[in-house]
Amino acid sequence: MSKTLLECPEIEVQDIDHLGIVAGIVDEIGIVELIDELIPSHELEKISAGQIVKAIILNCMAFITAPMYLFHQFFEGKATEHLLGEGVKAEFITPKRIGSVMDELYKYGLTKLFAQITLEVVKKFGIEVKVGQLDSTSISVQGEYLESEESGEVNDSENPNGVGIPAEPEPVTITYGYSRDHRPDLKQFTTDLLVSQDCGIPLFMTIGNGNDSDKKSFIETIKAFQETWQGSKLEVIVMDSGFFSKENLQAIGSQKWISRAPNTIKDVNELCQTLLPEQFSPSKINGYSVSEVPSVYGNVEQRWIIIESEQKRAADLKLLEEKIKKQFQEDNRRLATLCRQDFACETDAQQAALKFEKTLKFHYLLTVNFEKIAHYSKPGRPAKDDDPSSYTYRIVTSLAPDNDLIAKLQRVCGRMV
Question: pTM to 2 decimals?
Answer without folding.
Answer: 0.75
